[in-house]
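Box 3.1. Reading complex inputs
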Amino acid sequence: MKRLFPYFKFLRPHWLAFAGALLCGIIYGAASGFGLPYMIDQVFPRIFPRSDENVGVELWTLVLYVSWFPAVFAVRGLSGYFNVYLINYCGVKVLERIRLQVFDKLQRLPLAFHHRNREGDLLSRVMGDTAQLQAIVLQVGNEIVKQPVTFIGAMSALLFMALKDENLAFVLLSLVVIPLCVFPVRRIGNMLMKRALLMQEQAGSMTAVLSENLSAAREVRAFNLEDRERNRFRKSSEDFFMARMKVVKYANLLTPLIEVITAVGVSAAIFQASRKGVHLDAVIPVIVALYMSYEPVKKLGGIHNQIKQALASLDRLDDILDVPETIASPSVPCDMDDVRGEITFEGVSYSYDNSDGDSECIPAVANLNLSLKAGETVALVGPSGGGKSTLAGLLPRFYDPSEGKVLLDGVDLRKFSLRDLRESVALVPQRPFLFDATVRENVFMGQTDHSDSEVEQVCGLAYADEFIKEFRHGYDERLGEDGSRLSGGQLQRIALARAFLKNAPILVFDEATSALDAESEDKIRDAMAKLIEGKTTLLIAHRFSSLKLAHRILVMDQGRIIADGSHEKLHRECDLYRTLYDSQFGAVPQSED
Ligand code: ADP
């Protein structure tokens, strides 16, 4: 239970509903645990007086007596209903907050976290574990207040009857079996928690397989991977089934165990009642009260089991909530009103996390020193895996250097607010992600301070208006997730339009690796030339024809800058550059020593 306390703060806005739920639960418990046995004890002897007393009951008195039954059940039914309704309201509200908190956290976590974790597993935690928690909250909510109060009410009724008639005092002994129930409850609860954790992990793996499969629909068909994928999914589905059956095994073991233990208590009570010659009408309320005290024990055991399962899911959500936000804004950020755009990398190294932990991690960027003057366009070339994208990712602080620092106008990037910094850096990725929204919204990207005509203007600058006008709904055409309807060249033009609209002083341009048709290529280069004017630009060049736009070219290999200069100088002096350049332009590569 202690683990759940931090979440009680989410109840604060709903305290009235929660208090109402508690009150209704108390009324329900008192009506069931005490009211029912007490009524049987008090009313039955008056309705059915012993034959030796032989006193007839008057009609209206009889009506009064019998109306006790519907009255008690009405109080019990109404309070039970409102208890369940209100407690579920509170539980679902709290869960909603937890789900939002996890989603919110996922927005703030560094990119490295997303690289480390499978998308399917995160999906399963945010959706599956919260759904599991929700189902449990609903079930537990139904009983969590009612059952303890019913138990206390029933014990009070037993005590009341025992005090009234000393022949009945023996029933208190039958309650001795109740503490015996604690052992199986605790043991099974702990076993269940481990199994529930395993089950949710398996659910995560299964979702990961599914989400990977769905996002690789093209590759699965192209490489005939259908059978392999089917087997992979079947295996993970079977693992999930096995884990689930273990949960079912332990979750359902408790009720029969407690029933047997409490049946021993009841039979002991009946045995004693018979030995003491207690009359049947005195025994019935005792048995009802005993039942009313055993039943909550059984149900509370079940609740304990469910809470353990809920804790397993909560642990998986806490795994996300507890990840440190290593990339965050400082508490007092530096002002960023007038950015000149001078960028300096001072002894910067960056290594991706090595999840195996056993082999040494090779830095993606190693002890790099570099300066970009304000308004300068610097092209980065080099073999794939050389560290170009990692270097570019340091500018909007997708990653922070493991060593050294990156400065903007002489100030460490970590001193700026993350929001301001990212406002100042426009990114043109190789293949931009398109949201399932209209063309207009996809260019806006949340920048609401621009007008529709500005969107059309920037699309014109990026040469995107030509193909947008062809759409049936023009700028209001929905593009659909992943933009598979658009060609590589069209996608880059949308990305360029976004950058034109953002008009940030720093630009990171990652050129598309896939070949574009000659017309697209010319247009994109034209648009780029307009876009980079007066901006500090880092251009990851995959096509050497774009190098014309750069003031300076850097050759990057194994995380280091191995050469810096003009095309002529590099072609003359740098073997790697010459090899890369000549291979792209069809010249016979010169041999490297
Ligand atoms: P480039 O852009 O020049 O192709 P990258 O910056 O993408 O190079 O990669 C540099 C190095 O970092 C490579 O060795 C690559 O394997 C590694 N790397 C890139 N991204 C990740 C990642 N998300 N996790 C681990 N290693 C990565």
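In summary: Confidence is low (pLDDT under 50) at residues 587-593.
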